[in-house]
Amino acid sequence: MTPPPSPAVEGAAATASAGHGGRRRHVLLFPLPYQGHINPMFRLAGVLHARGCAVTVFHTRFNGPDAARHPEYRFVPVPDGMSGAPSVAIDSVVKHILALNDACEAAFRERLAAVLAEYSRDAVTCLVADAHLLRMVEVARRLAVPTLVLRTGSAACFAGFVAYPLLCDKGYLPVQESSELDRPVRELPPYRVRDLMHMGSDGHELVCELLARAVAAVKLSSGLILNTFDALEAPELAKLRRDLAVPVFDIGPLHKFSPAAGGSLLRENRSCLEWLDVQAPESVLYVSFGSLACMGGRELDETAWGIAGSGVPFLWVVRPGLVCGRAPDEPARLPEGFEAATRGRGVVVEWAPQEEVLRHRAVGGFWTHNGWNSTAESVCEGVPMLCRPHFGDQMGNARYVEHVWKVGFEVGDGGELERGTVEAAIRRLMTGSDGAEMRTRARELKMAAAECTGNAGSSELAIVRMVTHILSL
């Protein structure tokens, strides 16, 4: 349930509605069109709308939102001139993000100018763009629209973005030999080289460009918005505030302030909640590897037989496109005999209402790819994690889960999975003494998140500062 706003928040909302002859101030948003970026942006939209701002969402044709699910917002399509979706390989995703910026630039300039003419310039407060949309930030600045940037990952991850040129100068990157992957990054503890965003020598320049653009977008803006909270990343937030010359607003976890935003690109199967209702408390392992990560056919089979052999009740999200090299809409086929071996003990769905699943009393562990949204949601519900990161910021998130917050551990250490390893890891988390200790620490972080999002908590106060800042631009 979304907490009611405090008097300070209600005051900010009244300010947003009262200015300019009683007209609501307009905030313009532009999300990066990937699931893990769309959801936080729509949650931010909910926060701003609840506090008195009118919301206009610019969006691409690729992964465009369903406007009918958000009648309170206005939607402005921006032609992207691109056909098809990228493959889930990290180099393909990076190239797609860079190309999308260039493809949308001229069309966004035209659409933004039209909106400014319609609303009147003084009614528009700012544009909030995803950190990976530098070209949109530049367009807005040329049209004299103030900007803020939403970074949908952790504070630690963005600190890595800022430090990336230094890390390259010091020889950490690009990675030349696999033996270098476990080298500690002394400038960014507890990271090792393998925990940084990298794609080897061939993709090094692409990653450098992607991260440099994100940092440039923030430095051009009037503020950085992060979906994190002080109790989770206080040292990392302090470092960003020292290193950046713009205000930093740690307003997360956003899902605690803004209800489900209807931004899912896949249809949720809610019948799994009824199955969870009849399971014992903290007995079920929830398994989901997000909307983009994929695995080989052999890894899928070893994962399946490891789950089967563990004897633990499970809810497993096996979405279309989960197996690498197959079409995005092609169902992933589990090995023959798996259903019979697990009948009555588990449920397999193509997509699940994850927040409700993690909140459910029956769920005692989460096997995750460690995307930031999934990691933060698990932390906030007090659910310990098995970690199997695939790309991007996921390795760094998993490192924090295991070595800083101590609420989970990595499965397979980045190598190939074997069913015996999977079995042992599941049992350790769900029934072992280690798992019990991790569960206790996870409950402590859940309480800390509740305090941050409660009345006069650090995240709520950051929202008040953010809204006040936006209205002053």
TrEMBL record:
Q: Which UniProt keywords apply?
A: Transferase
Which InterPro entries does the record match to this protein? UDP_glucos_trans (IPR002213)
Instruction: Extract the Gene3D superfamilies matched here.
Output: Glycogen Phosphorylase B
Q: Which organism is it from?
A: Oryza meyeriana var. granulata
**Which domain of life does the protein's organism represent?**
Eukaryota
Q: Name one Pfam family in it.
A: UDPGT
The UniProt similarity line reads:
Belongs to the UDP-glycosyltransferase family.
Which protein are we looking at? Uncharacterized protein
